[in-house]
């Protein structure tokens, strides 16, 4: 079998300029695996609502918007399914869209809208940009939607991996098409036929027809070689070996493009996945939620934030140990630590001085010794009240 006959269709597949679509992209295993990994991770992160009161941060657990974002949306999709769909549209479409159904000052329900149903009608002013959203012939304002846009350059639509990485995706898809062709022909082996003597044209034609029937007709699975003919299997062509190597390389590079490390599954890889992939999306998602779900009177005081505690469970012990050191050395106060963790303050502004039983209040300059039940006020210069400094 002529090696060029194998290499030619493979090269044609590699050089294909067919239009890439999200449906084709999701048929590529490493693409579907990466997108689904991100979508499921994001969907399982709880979203909390907080209110700032001076230095205090108070969680608002009973707000209906929290229920809509974490449990039931009031739509056919529940909150988990809605967030997965938004992630897929973020990477594969022109952005993730959720219609916010307001009733006066209250949000009644959230409705995911497939990005391919969304059309944008921008104005013509390149400075003071504005636009309308068109869905099935109806016109909407942008602030009626939660909009999560990837790599947007106009604030109206995002740029998908299908648009920005179409050539790399075409290579992956064309490789699948080539492999499918091999499966359809029974995974035919490549090689050549050796003959001890020169064959007549009639014998060559008969051999070609027999070989063609072998790979086009599943009912025939053997070719009779006579007259001293011998089939010798050929090793993989350089083109196919390069294709196999590129499949692995393309998969790794694509995952890195999305912020998914090669060593996902160990501590270092998981941290990198959270930092460079999940945090990137969640930051944009929270910005979109704060823009679309908060009343104007709430903005600046209320905010949505992801609860990453389950996702970063492996880091909790190390983080809490660091907090303990910071508290013991007086670098952080207890309520400062609680604020970092988005927890309500205890109203304790004292710093440990390293004597375990001695607490210092920097606001009032008082020292309190619990086991003696005594308090002392520190005067200027560092002495206790009633004592002279040395």
Which strand order do you get reading across the main beta sheet? 12-13-14-15
**Separation of termini?**
101 Å
**Judging from the principal axes of the Cα atoms, what is the shape?**
elongated
Strand count, sense and closure of the main sheet?
A: 4 strands, antiparallel
The tally of domains stands at 2
H/E topology pattern? HHHEEHHEEEEEEHHEHEHHEHHEEEE
Helix count? 12
What structural class do you assign from the helix and strand content? alpha+beta
The tally of beta strands, per DSSP, is 15
Any low-confidence stretches, pLDDT <50, length ≥5?
Answer: 1-10, 386-390
Roughly what percent helix? 40-55%
Write down the Rg. Answer: 33 Å
Mean pLDDT: 80
Strand proportion = 15-25%
Report on this structure:
The structure is a single chain. The protein contains 12 helices and 15 strands. By secondary structure, the protein is of the alpha+beta class. The protein has 2 domains: 1-190 and 237-307, no CATH class; 192-233, no CATH class. The chain has a 4-stranded antiparallel β-sheet, with no helix packed on it. It has a 3-stranded antiparallel β-sheet with strand order 2-1-11. It is elongated, with a radius of gyration of 33 Å.
Name a few traits of the molecule.
390 residues, alpha+beta, 2 domains, four-stranded antiparallel beta sheet, three-stranded antiparallel beta sheet, 12 helices, 15 strands, 41% helix, 18% strand, elongated, disordered N terminus, disordered C terminus
